[in-house]
């Protein structure tokens, strides 16, 4: 059974889908997929075999933080439960499919798309900038969730009612 985990790396929150597959895990981060096996060593050492290639990392945990040292860089990961809490507040149960599609209120041109698939958003976050009738419109998230689909690109002309972004 797959499990989705959310981690904050710097200012960006990413979703990671992890599926057990015998002696390894199939891991998907955005559009990228990896086969990962792990072998734990001493004092926080972890040998990860990513698509058959060994990567040595060192891991330390402190509260909700996980510190990962890889290739001379230290990364601080924060496990987040934002989506589960948001769904629970809306009365959804784990496993429920909670979606919200944001649509263009009027014809216009997409100036910028400020999110990518897999990003975690809060209610009110600006997702897309549209130009319509010489005005700049800020399309905001109507709920907390994960951007599951971005339907438009900068420069694209959209019609009234056209889907822009989907949040689950």
What are the salient characteristics of this protein?
elongated; 4-stranded antiparallel beta sheet; MCC_alpha_BT; Glycoprotein, Type 4 Pilin; 1 helix; Acetyl-CoA carboxylase biotin carboxyl carrier protein subunit; biotin; 168 residues; 2 domains; Biotin_Carboxyl_Carrier/Decarb
Break the fold down into its secondary structure elements and pairings.
Elements: E1 3-9, E2 12-21, E3 24-29, E4 32-40, E5 45-50, E6 53-62, E7 65-70, E8 73-80, H1 82-89, E9 100-103, E10 108-113, E11 120-121, E12 126-132, E13 135-140, E14 145-150, E15 157-158, E16 163-167
Antiparallel strand pairs: 1-2, 1-8, 2-3, 3-4, 4-5, 5-6, 6-7, 7-8, 9-16, 10-12, 10-15, 11-14, 12-13, 14-16
3D architecture notes:
The protein is mainly β and 168 residues long. The chain has two domains: 3-80, Glycoprotein, Type 4 Pilin, CATH 3.30.700; 95-167, OB fold (Dihydrolipoamide Acetyltransferase, E2P), CATH 2.40.50. The chain has one helix at 82-89; strands at residues 3-9, 12-21, 24-29, 32-40, 45-50, 53-62, 65-70, 73-80, 100-103, 108-113, 120-121, 126-132, 135-140, 145-150, 157-158, 163-167. The longest helix is centred in the middle third of the chain and has 8 residues, at 82-89. Residues 81-98 have low confidence and may be disordered. Keywords: Biotin. Residues 91-168 form the Lipoyl-binding domain.
Under the CATH scheme, the architecture of the largest domain is: 2-Layer Sandwich
Average pLDDT reading: 80
Question: What is the total number of structural domains?
Answer: 2
Number of helices: 1
Structural class: mainly beta
Radius of gyration, taken over Cα atoms and rounded to an integer in Å: 19 Å
Q: Roughly what percent helix?
A: under 10%
How many DSSP E strands? 16
């Amino acid at each position: 059974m797959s499990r989705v985990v959310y981690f904050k790396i710097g200012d960006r929150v990413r979703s990671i889908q992890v599926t057990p597959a015998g002696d390894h895990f199939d891991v998907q981060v955005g559009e990228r997929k990896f086969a990962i096996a792990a072998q734990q060593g001493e004092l926080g050492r972890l040998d990860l075999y990513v698509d058959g290639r060994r990567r040595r990392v060192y891991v330390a945990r402190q509260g909700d933080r996980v510190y990962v040292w890889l290739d001379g860089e230290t990364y601080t990961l924060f496990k987040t439960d934002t989506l589960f809490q948001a769904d629970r507040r809306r009365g959804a149960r784990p496993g429920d499919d909670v979606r919200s599609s944001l649509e263009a209120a009027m014809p216009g041109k997409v100036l910028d798309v400020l999110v990518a698939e897999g990003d975690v958003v809060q209610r009110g976050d600006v997702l897309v900038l549209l130009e319509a009738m010489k005005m700049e419109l800020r399309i905001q998230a109507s709920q907390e969730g994960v951007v599951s689909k971005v339907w438009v690109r900068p420069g694209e002309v959209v019609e009234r009612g056209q889907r822009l972004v989907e949040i689950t």
